[in-house]
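Customer escalation, tier 2.

The customer says the design service returned an amino acid string that "doesn't look like it belongs to this structure." They asked us to rerun it and document both sides in this ticket. The original structure tokens are below, unchanged.
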């Protein structure tokens, strides 16, 4: 879950907080136990690369506006052992796919089985490998055809694999441009454009740099559904700091 420079991958952070406000709070408008959320825009600014952080926690989740179709929220990701250490700021826009199952809503919780006692280490496979992404012979990072374990409840490509493969493609494109993969993400902006229904899902990535000595490199990535005529599924913009 860490990049070559030792910082936490943005996908790992984004998956803990895909929506900025109200998630998991049955009393919050638009919360995960009130409606089935569907993120539309996810924006994250990273303040701390969290090199020595063992656990993170999402705090201050706030719904800024809950409208008829869209909701807007924000939150912070902090060191779970030191809440004064802010890792990232998150803002998001989302919509609803419908009401939560009445049984789940009445229970007031999800029956998720947490995975315990796993320490992140170089011995674990990278996230892109776990989710089946590969770099093809044509140079594009891609996910395979849609299968159940990569699907969301609405039978479309889950946002998790999208974040992972787009970050991987962004790092690869930026590293090729500047000649090093020691890159720390500072800004990550994702737009979920349409449902990924078939696959394979290909990334098209392009990197660029600022002026000489800026120490920054950026990348823009588009994720397309090749099985649906190259229909755009998601897009991302990343800004990295080159780590000496």
């Amino acid at each position: 879950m860490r990049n070559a420079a030792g910082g936490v991958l943005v996908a790992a952070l984004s998956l803990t907080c895909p929506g900025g406000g109200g998630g998991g709070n049955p009393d919050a408008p638009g919360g995960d136990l009130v409606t089935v959320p569907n993120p539309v825009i996810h924006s994250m600014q990273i303040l701390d690369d969290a090199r020595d952080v063992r656990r993170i926690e999402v705090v201050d989740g706030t719904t800024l506006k809950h409208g008829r179709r869209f909701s807007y929220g924000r939150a912070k990701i902090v060191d779970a052992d030191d809440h004064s250490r802010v890792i990232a700021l998150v803002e998001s826009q989302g919509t609803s796919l419908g009401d939560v199952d009445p049984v789940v809503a009445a229970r007031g919780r999800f029956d998720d089985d947490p995975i315990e006692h796993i320490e992140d280490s170089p011995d674990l496979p990278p996230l892109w490998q776990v989710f089946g992404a590969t770099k093809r012979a044509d140079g594009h990072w891609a996910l395979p055809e849609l299968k159940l374990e990569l699907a969301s409840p609405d039978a479309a490509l889950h946002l998790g694999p999208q974040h992972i493969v787009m970050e991987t493609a962004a790092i690869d494109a930026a590293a090729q441009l500047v000649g090093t993969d020691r890159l720390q993400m500072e800004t990550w902006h994702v737009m979920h454009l349409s449902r990924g229904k078939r696959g394979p899902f290909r990334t098209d990535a392009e990197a660029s740099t600022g002026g000489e000595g800026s120490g920054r490199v950026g990348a823009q990535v588009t994720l397309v559904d090749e099985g649906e005529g190259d229909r755009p599924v998601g897009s991302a913009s990343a800004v990295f700091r080159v780590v000496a």
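Tier 2 assessment: The sequence is consistent with the input. The longest strand covers residues 82-99. The chain has four helices and ten strands. Sent an explanation to the customer and offered a walkthrough call.
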